[in-house]
Amino acid sequence: MALGLFRVCLVVVTAIINHPLLFPRENATVPENEEEIIRKMQAHQEKLQLEQLRLEEEVARLAAEKEALERVEEEGQQQNESRTAWDLWSTLCMILFLVIEVWRQDHQDAPSPECLGGDEDELPGLEGAPLRGLTLPNKGTLDHFYERCIRGATADAARTREFVEGFVDDLLEALRSLCNRDTDMEVEDFIGVDSMYENWQVDRPLLCDLFVPFMPPEPYHFHAELCCSRHPVPLDRQGYGRIKVVRADEDPLGCICDKTKLGEDMLCLLHGKKSLARPGSEVETLLCARGAPYLDAMQVMKWFQTALTRAWHRIAHKYEFDLAFGQLDSPGSLKIRFRSGKFMPFNLIPVIQCDDSDLYFVSHLPREPSGDAPASSTDWLLSFAVYERQFLRMTSKALPEGACHLSCLQIASFLLSKQSRLTGPSGLSNYHLKTALLHLLVSRRPADWEAGQLDARLHELLRFLEKSLLEKKLHHFFIGNRKVPNAMGLPEAVRRAEPLNLFRPFVLQRSLYRKTVDSFYEMLKNAPVLISEYSLHIPSDHASLPPKAVVL
Questions:
Q1: Which residues neighbour 109 within 8 Å (Cβ) at sequence distance 6 or greater?
Q2: What is the mean pLDDT of residues 15-30?
Q3: What is the structure's pLDDT at 42?
Q4: Most CB atoms within 10 A, among 50, 155, 473, 541?
Q5: What does the record say about its membrane topology (predicted)?
């Protein structure tokens, strides 16, 4: 009973305490706040999930970039390893090639020092070269042929030179009288070159080659630029040079005053105001390339032809013959036509002297090839014709009386000329024959050129040419040849230059090379028949010179 009463009292007390009116509760709005908190928590959870996704994507991207970088590094290492291996292999191949080339030159070229690339101090006999088993006429037949067919041309050559020189003197004097000394070129005296002035001309008709040097009017002068003085020299520019037209008050290398704008208060100490404002002169306008101060070979050819035509019209009334241009591609190729129908050709070649040497720039000289055609009209061919004449004259003084060196060249030139008429021209020219002879002259003792050695030296000359053709290598005698005597006075740039291979076109043109080799052996095959035939019967083309023209 007491326990039940206690429980009732406890319930009543609990109800009173929890009555809202007696003790109002502070968290009566908890249900509403809980819903807002839940919404905020859900929104925050969504933000956290989005941030987590973004972070996961960023981590994945960074991992992908790291993997890509590692892959690129691995590929780069592999490429470097392969490149290193390839460079090593290339180096080994180059070393092997150089070793083989050195061995070939030392062991294969050593027994044949007649090759131009070898030493020319000692030149043993060339008995090993068979010339394909072809034989040349014996000494007696060669002597008879030379006496009957070639020696007689010497007197004709002297008469021809005398007549041509007299006429050219008169022609150039008329040209000078027509020139204005203030604006026109100054023409100097001619210089005789090539076979007619070296006493080995045999081909008919006899042809005189005359250099005509010219100089610009004051205040201009020519500044020569040799291609061989620069290193390295392109293969197609070897043997050429350029000529710069420079005023006397200018630096040949150029002044910056004509390349930059000076201030109003600044003055060039070299030129001054008048020099900077000068108009273009007739020399620069007519003879130089467009937009460049270099002499244009084509413009000079046109000027020279025009000047010769005017000079001939001035003196034509004095002569009983006509004068005409022979070849369109050569400016000074002239031909005298007599009333009898006969003619006499000669060449007047405009040239420019290289500094104070005997080296000349020529605009066009087809009989002295040096390789490929010039790439530009401002490229001028270097001619050593004056040096060649001087070298032959100097060498002849040291040789025995009646030496056979020119006789060998004459016979070889005769055979080449006749073969060219039979099968057409080839890549071999008289200049190649003369170059081979010049190399042999510095290789043989003077006693080896006695008159009695004509057959041996001719055989040696032809075998020398055969080896040069087979190797496609015939070096220019003067360019880069340290064997040339110092007394010749060659420019130092020419002596130190790389040797020029005159047979370089054969390396690039296989058809020309094959034709030249075939023509060479065909010439050797026909040599005995030609020499025997011309020894017995002198053809009409070796008849005497036409009578001398009358000067009125």
A1: 115, 117, 118
A2: 53
A3: 83
A4: 473
A5: Single-pass type I membrane protein
